[in-house]
Protein 1
Amino acid sequence: MSIEAPRGGCADPRERGLLLAPEFPDAYRHVMRAIRVAAAVLTAGLSAALPLGAQTTAFVGATLWDGTGAPAVQHATLVVQDGRVVSVGTAPAPEGSTVVDVSGRWLIPGLVNAHAHVTGYWARDEITDTLARIEGDLLLYARYGVTTVNSLGDEPSQAKWARDVQDTPTLTRARLHFAGPVITATTPEDAVAAVDANADFGVDWIKIRVDDNLGTVQKLPWPVVIAVIKEAHARGLRVATHLFYLDDATRLLRMGSDLVAHSVRDADVDGELVSLLKERDVCYVPTLVREESTFVYGRRPPFFDDSFFVKYAKATEAARLSNPTFMRRTATSPDGTRYRAALAQAQKNLKALEDAGVRIAMGTDSGPAGRFPGYFEHRELQLMVDAGLSPGQALMSATSVAASCLRLDDVGTLTADRWADFLVLRSDPLADVANTRSLDAVYVAGNQVR
Ligand SMILES: [Zn+2]
């Protein structure tokens, strides 16, 4: 099947054609074999993917911003062992450690994306094994500096196997958490069964969509929403909600939604919404670049010629999106015009919520066709700053805040005991957020993946 333009919903139903029916290898051996195949295919040509093992490595001389909100430390020493941060400070490299001179560079934590998707789409031309395709998506994210991906729904079921083997110092791709099939039941009884099936399978989140896709489809019925949230909470799972309208956001928060997975895009956020988000300590994920992806391909976007994009982006996908017929259809789509207005509304709301002290977690909805994994995250940071956030606020939302929103306590900051997932930049990202693109190197668990 052919994949059309991305549309209003966070994952177009047509993307389901990419997904395989649940089929779980029962032999762990099979998983490890697939991962070895993926690693061999995907790291071919990679200059230095050297697992550190038990050796100690000290990255010295850079300015280090640890993601906690503390000021950056100049001439820092970052000590890494067994994939984790041992210490950050200004002491000399420990005796006997391998020293990596990163003088003049900036070190920041790897980016955490609170709303992305792992579809297997990006490596599907080169790789047939589904688990290896997932690993391919995750390597792509990592090469752009996105080292943790929260996939909010409809992944191939093999995502579970990728997640279950990633707590290792030899990891060389992004970390994955996932929501499983999005709940689309029509009755509360079916909803409970669907939540139970996901919970039994071992998902990290339950995902629902409450949206009429600009008036084209029926929203998920409210009795179903109530049943999903109740059952998810009973099973110890949190519910991430796709939404569009302010009224729905308010109602969903009152019902117990645990993550607002997109911007409110129809109206200015109000005091009631702010109070609910803060009282319930619910994080808000803007996904601004998702709006942009609905209209940006009306002409050939300038970023198709950005060397940072070109280095790892799928060239055949850029070619597909540059097809004149495709561009003409996108340019004349009324949905594109509406989502362009929705982006402006979303940016206004983001600034209001940040100023009000709501926790903002960076998310992009990248992963489906037309939404380039890894690159879109850098674009999202720029759109957040364009909305009025400081580069520091945008970077906090993409590191420690996103991690805490996902309740991950081993990523998101460069502090002792966390995984050594970090970026080496040539320029100061706090001075200009576009400098996240001056990406020299990416490390996952201390292993260089770019
Ligand atoms: Zn999504």
Protein 2
Amino acid sequence: MTVQSPILTLVIPTYNERLNLEELVRRVDIALQGLVWEMVIVDDDSPDGTAEFAKSISRRDPRIRCIRRVNRRGLSGACIDGILSSSAPFVGVMDADMQHDESILPRMLEQLQSGHYDLVIGSRHLDGGSAQEGFSARRAALSLLAIKIARWALNTNVADITSGFFMLRRDIVDGVARELLPSGFKILADIIGSVKGPLRINEVGYVFRGRMAGESKLDMKVAIDFLGLIVNKVTRGLLPVRFILFAIVGLFGVGVHLAILGLLVSLPDMSFLLSQTIATVVAMTTNFFINNEFTYRDAKLRGVALLKGLLFFYAVCSLGALANVGVGTWIYHFNRVWWIGGLSGALMGSVWNYALSSILVWRRGD
Ligand SMILES: Nc1nc2c(ncn2[C@@H]2O[C@H](COP(=O)(O)OP(=O)(O)O)[C@@H](O)[C@H]2O)c(=O)[nH]1
Ligand SMILES: [Mg+2]
């Protein structure tokens, strides 16, 4: 028997998609009839046993493989790992939940094979494409806003830059793999923002369907995460996404602090010192939990580690406050402009808090 190597690797990131896999494979098999293809299901250790089930499919159909990743979460990271595992000339990325229309896969592949394009995107915002069925009104509005910002920032006119359905030459990802951000959700925008030279992109419209089984994992966090990605790409990687998220959470913390302070000082018999102390502790605590949930969700602390992390976070922030006051006063000493001193101090404090809590609290180097 001669075994032909696949022309296309289809990467399917999954988290709790066991109930969708069988149907997905059936549909892809029909859509790609006559082609030599393989499917790599990249599962982040889903509690519903997706990986186990995927491997049971591989035992009867060796075109299907599964990478089970443990102690890691991240849609982009899963896609990157899947793409890097391929040796085919072309790779595609598609959801497991039947929202993406598999019947356009051969057309996408043909366009790449023709040599006219490097990247073909399944687009919901193009003639012949629609997102009505698969989107709630709020999601649709949010998605359109994100697309507008991204197109402007990345200087591209791609209609559906947040699409999770696309196909491209594998060597393009190989070239930028080290610059891609595994913690994000929007791998396509990341790839487009990371490629230095011109990229020949085409879009194929399709109707975005409702999800078959299970539920969506994307929420508000994703929108803010996406903003971080865009700032990172626009500053050419100077500002890490995590720092941007940390700073957004920090700003929110300032709001919490002021709201509580305002409330407490209005109480009778309440000293400023006590009010300020309580407001500081509450703001630090909320920031810690939001950062744990959001900024560091891939390194989320639980149980005893959560408590230890909180104590470390208090310590880091207290020293950060000292750095803030020290640097602020020092700068003020030279130029006597209160807000320059204040801003420099705040910036110093946040860089300190970010750097030290990354290393000490969540034990991350980025
Ligand atoms: N490996 C992996 N896959 C994920 C993760 N989050 C979402 N997915 C998968 O990525 C695809 C898109 O996610 P989904 O929740 O459907 O997003 P939506 O279509 O925008 O609502 C689905 O196949 C999910 O199972 C993750 O953290 N890790
Ligand atoms: Mg989906």
